[in-house]
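1st attempt posting a full record on here, be nice pls
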Amino acid sequence: MKFLLKTATISFFILTIITAFSFTSFTNHNSRPVVSKSKNQKIQVAILLDVSGSMEGLIEQAKAQLWNMVSVMGKAQCNNNTSPQIEIALYEYGRSTNSKTEGYVKQISGFTGDLDLLSKNLFSLTTNGGDEFCGHVIYTSLKDLQWDASAENYKVIFIAGNEDFLQGDVLYTKACGEAKQKGVIVNTIYCGDSLQGVREHWNLNSECGSGSFTVINQNERIDDIPTPYDSIIFSLNEKLNGTYIAYGNAGAGMMAMQSNVDKMNYSMNKSVAVKRATVKSNGKLYKNESWDMVDANGSDEKFIEKLDKKTLPDSLKNKSTEDLKKIVKLKSEQRAAIQKQITAASAEREDYITKEKAKNATDKSQTATLETEIEKIIKNQAKRYNMVIQ
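the predicted structure (as tokens):
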């Protein structure tokens, strides 16, 4: 009898625990999704640009701000002293030649860490008259992109333009609902006067949750202060390019694109080109495992042993595995040394620019641009995800 009573008591206890656990799980599932902790945090950024006829200045600023934005995010430190993985996507909207049924919206690039490709795509953007449907492009980016499910990650949209925010058949409230469900912050950047931005409803985006509304002068020229360090950094950047070893069917083409993107940014102005070179000096931000042997070997120590030598440049095809390892090791050491020099020269350049600006300072406050506002917003919002940006 005692044995039966004891058994019944234990069974009841176990059943109570299981029932309580099941109820708790059900409750949590309905009130707040249970999210497994990811190993490395992410920053996912979608940039949505109005490419209608009046937005030439915005496109120019977007080309320039990419490297500053990446540099800022690259300084982020997570709680566990790791750096977050960075992914950036790009959309255009307001081009009359894009599909009307798609709201004149087009994805230029899905989430990627390929910064060369992203910069090349930005430089390919041109303006063209059309209808700008903000709700449509926000909703499309939320539905089409592979947003990470983890609530630990900083997921953010920046939409910039200058027409009424309420245009189109997709209401901003529908887009907001999707953003809230996926934990994505939506920030609106109006190109023009603040009061006009409010009249055209760009401030309504605050109803999406915790996003920001700001205004910029899209026609403000990009600062290009010459410094004694510019030529040093450009020379080091050329040497840095010499440390890459292409492999694979696309390797030679990707290496050529690296050089071409350097030239595109240099043609814009020296300041932009220097910022690109500075990002390239950060091995955590600028990685090319898909076509560069040095980066690929850094990610997988067995890479060279598994490599198909037929995809190598002619000068390396007949090298032994041991010889290839020695070559890659040497290039890796050279790259690290050059990257360190670029980082040091860039820091001195920034100090020089700060002093020059102080000499020529006026009472006039700095004009807001796409670069300045995105930097401020990212620094502020990253804190919510326990990321610190110095």
